[in-house]
Amino acid sequence: MSARNTYVRPMSGWYRRNPHFLAYMLRELTAVFLAGYAGVLLAGVIALTRGPDAYAAFREFLSSPLSVGLHVLIFIAALYNAYTWFKVSPKAMPPIVLAGRRIPDRVIVGSQLVACVLVFVAMLLLAGMS
Amino acid sequence: MPDRREIDIEVMRYNPETDSEPYIQSFRVPFDEDTSVLMGLQYIKDHLDGSLTFRWSCRMAVCGSCGKMVNGVPKLSCKAFLRDYYPGKLRIEPLEHFPIVRDLAVDQTDFLEKLEAVKPWIIRKDEKPLSEGTYLQTPEEVSSYLQFSSCINCLLCYSACPQYGLDNSFTGPAALSLLHRYNADSRDEGKSERMPLVNSEEGVWGCTLVGYCSEVCPKQVDPAAAVNRGKVNSTMDYFLRFLTPRGGVDS
Ligand code: SF4
Ligand code: FES
User: Fold this and answer.
1) Ligand 1 site-directed mutation target among B79, B154, B161, B215, most atoms within 8 Å of CB
2) Start-end of CATH 1.20.1300.10 domains in chain A
3) What is the pLDDT of residues A82-108, one digit of tens each?
4) Contact present, B91 and B73 (Cβ < 8 Å)
């Protein structure tokens, strides 16, 4: 067979071609916000090791409007990130069979979301009691 | 027939002997309620331009040879209908991420090599003689791989996978699904032969869970599920090799 003169199409801008790819890129982007939050926590720990003054300054920064805005942004990103991973979780687990029937994916996703909300509410209640 | 409408179909054309790159050609095609996209292409070939090149065979979503991009979405052209695009128009292109041989026909060689590499057949350490009868399975054992055995090799999932498009050393959704289909089969004893490929960069770890493959699959194979269960297996394989003398496979 003679060598074929095939044409390979370029991939540039592939994530703009389909809304599904955009949602995927958004999910990957939210990971940057999560990493940013890890940075905030780390900064707090470092401030703590440097003594009471540094820690007080860190806490002051936390209550600044800039920090509050940043936290709201990170919170939204974290919610979206968590939701996307709940959504794909049935793909990573072996099928769960109960009484001869396979549990549908949406039940698995739904029960995780419910569990997540319950834990969240419980934490808020605990924080309120202390 | 009372219902006779017309729709514009734009087709990507490429002639390897004369063109340096593909171009778009538009045709006007009559259709009715049950005209598939494939029939639209056949109308063009029969009445408007006999040189238009594309693949098909069964016309009933079984053979997997008629995949095309329809308005940017990978589809079996025999299972998509012109009525659903009317009054808009259609842009039909060859399956994304594969080299174009001519017009809508792509070169599938790369996939065929990958398919062979996953050893998609039942491997036995010792074949039992025919006189001992068939290998029996319970319904549960069958259900653990059944959906992954429905793949018709249509390659829609490869066209839905940007990871494969960006780096085609990735084994990809369908081949990894078939790999998982045999690893999950209780009659099979070839897991240890397949795990090195699963564990490699070209194996399941090339997947970043875009997940679009499972949405475009016309046979509900859910290739993303197969690949990601492969990741779980690969992780277990990695840790179990410290615990057992032979490694974690086949246990
Ligand atoms: S997994 Fe689905 S989309 Fe991919 S080749 Fe098989 S049938 Fe086609
Ligand atoms: S022609 Fe066989 S799947 Fe479409």
Assistant:
1) B154
2) 14-91
3) 888 888 888 888 777 777 777 888 898
4) no
Instruction: Report ipTM for this prediction.
Output: 0.85
Regarding whether B213 and B123 lie in a shared domain, the answer is yes
Which residue in B104, B156, B228 has the most chain A C-beta atoms within 10 A of its own C-beta, making it the best mutation to test that interface?
Answer: B228
The rounded Å distance from CA A28 to ligand 2 centre is 35
Measured between alpha carbons, how far is B66 from B48 in angstroms, rounded to an integer?
A: 20
Q: Dihedrals φ, ψ of B229, to 5°?
A: -70, -30
Distance from CA of A23 to the nearest CA of B (A): 9
Ligand 1 atom index nearest CA of B153: 5
Does some domain include residue B80? yes
The answer on pLDDT for B82 being more than 60 is yes
pLDDT tens, B28-78?
A: 999 999 999 999 999 999 999 999 999 999 999 999 999 999 999 999 999
The edge-to-edge listing of strands for the beta sheet with B67-70 is: B23-31, B5-13, B90-93, B67-70, B73-76
For CA atoms B134, B139, B145, B147, the dihedral sign is: positive
Residue B144 lies in a domain: yes
Residues B90 and B63 in one domain: yes
Q: Which residue has the tokens 């959704």?
A: B173
Quick one: which atom of ligand 2 is closest to the CA of B79?
Answer: 4
Residue B123 in domain:
yes
Q: Please give the distance, rounded to the nearest whole angstrom, from the Cα atom of residue B78 to the centre of ligand 2.
A: 6
For atom 3 of ligand 2, the residue with the nearest CA is B61
pLDDT at residue B251 above 50? no
Give the residue numbers spanning the domain of B98. 5-106
Q: Which tokens in the block code for residue B120? A: 């998609």
Q: How many domains does chain B have?
A: 2
Mean pLDDT within A12-20: 93
pTM: 0.88
The CATH number of the domain holding residue B76 is 3.10.20.30
Show residues of chain B in contact with A93, CB under 8 Å: 229, 232
